[in-house]
Write a structure and sequence with these properties.
Elements lengths: L1 H21 L3 H10 L1 H21 L4 E9 L4 H18 L12 H9 L2 H11 L2 H5 L1 E5 L4 E4 L4 E2 L4 E2 L13 H11 E5 L6 E7 L2 H40 L3 H23 L5 E5 L12 H29 L1
Antiparallel strand pairs: 1-7, 1-8, 2-3, 4-5, 6-7
Helix pairs in contact: 3-11, 4-10, 6-8, 9-10
InterPro entries: Bact_polysacc_biosynth/exp (IPR050445), GNVR (IPR032807), LPS_length_determ_N (IPR003856)
Pfam family, one: GNVR
Protein name: LPS O-antigen length regulator
Length: 321
């Protein structure tokens, strides 16, 4: 019995010693940090200086934004009414009038605006590739743009950047799309449904211009899509009229053609088709970035933490050795 008690006691003492060995003495840590204070200060100062240099080297950027509200889709009301009134007769003719649901056209317009096809067409139509991919500085005094000579020769209007295949000196639309999406922001307020579109660029004038173009182009795109769809629907309905002799079904078809005509007329007379402008884009006077003070603080903190880790790791490596 005494032998078992003695064994248990020895095991407890051994475990206690093991735990004590594994525990880190805070006084030892502080002593190690204090001994390496000069190395910590040196590394921290180097990181702080690097953060300052990096922050000062970043050009100012300006954000221009526009506040929009979804346009009332008045042309959709007629089809919804017809669906309730003549839905049964139309189904007899093999025509689906729909139930007024469908995709949210506001969200559809936003997704189209951020799509590769729309952005690529936007870049091509407005010829903004150089201002997007090769800008070096914006001169505030005379509102001029200078381009990076290693990327774009402005005098010869030629791309000269040195890249590896499959990339080419002139950026592809895929590269341009990635760059454009990084400076584009589209936000929808959940409570009001208002849409805010913003562009951030080194030139405040370019930012304002691009935002205005975006609103104009997306309205035109949505308008053109609905007009094309209405014209195709009209052609189909005229064909159906010729193929049926049932008077009630012809009444439904004529009503549908009337609604398509209203859609086309509605699109032709209104420029703000998908979105109405509440607060137009302005040329911003205050910069949006970079946040130089934050960069300096984070750089200094990072340097300090890395320096402390380096000192501690060096101490425990020497201790184990």
């Amino acid at each position: 019995m005494n032998k078992n008690i003695q064994t248990t006691t020895n095991e407890a003492v051994f475990l206690k010693n093991e735990i004590a060995d594994d525990q880190i003495d805070l006084r030892e840590l502080f002593a190690v940090i204090w001994q390496g204070k000069w190395l910590i200060m040196l590394i921290t100062c180097l990181f702080a200086a690097g953060a300052v240099v990096f922050a000062l080297s970043q050009p100012n950027t300006y954000k221009s934004e526009v506040l929009l509200t979804p346009a009332n889709e008045e042309q959709g009301g007629g089809l919804s009414a017809l669906a309730g009134q003549f839905g049964g007769l139309a189904s007899m003719a093999g025509i689906n009038l729909g139930g007024g649901g469908g995709a949210d056209k506001t969200q559809l317009a936003i997704e189209i605006m951020k799509s590769r096809q729309f952005v690529s067409q936007f870049i091509t139509n407005h010829q903004i590739l150089a201002d997007l991919m090769a800008i070096d500085k914006w001169q505030q005094m005379d509102n001029t743009i200078t381009y990076d000579a290693d990327i774009y020769d402005a005098n010869a209007q030629k791309w000269v950047r040195d890249v590896k295949l499959p990339l080419k000196p002139k950026p592809s639309l895929q590269e341009a799309y990635k760059a454009f999406i990084e400076i584009l922001s589209v936000n929808t307020a959940k409570d009001t449904g208002m849409v805010t579109i913003s562009i951030e660029h080194q030139s405040p004038y370019i930012a304002q211009k691009w935002v205005s173009w975006l609103v104009k182009d997306i309205n035109k795109e949505m308008k053109d899509r609905d007009v094309i769809e209405a014209k195709r629907s009209t052609e189909f309905l005229n064909t159906q009229i010729q193929q049926t002799n049932v008077a009630d079904i012809k009444t439904v078809l004529y009503k549908l053609i009337e609604e398509q005509a209203k859609t086309i007329m509605f699109a032709e007379v209104r420029d703000e088709y998908a979105f109405k402008t509440i607060d137009p884009a302005l040329v911003p006077e205050e910069k949006a970035g970079p946040k130089r003070a934050l960069i300096c603080v984070l750089g200094t903190m990072l340097g300090g933490m890395l320096a402390v880790m380096l000192v501690l790791i060096r101490h425990f490596v020497r201790k184990e050795g």
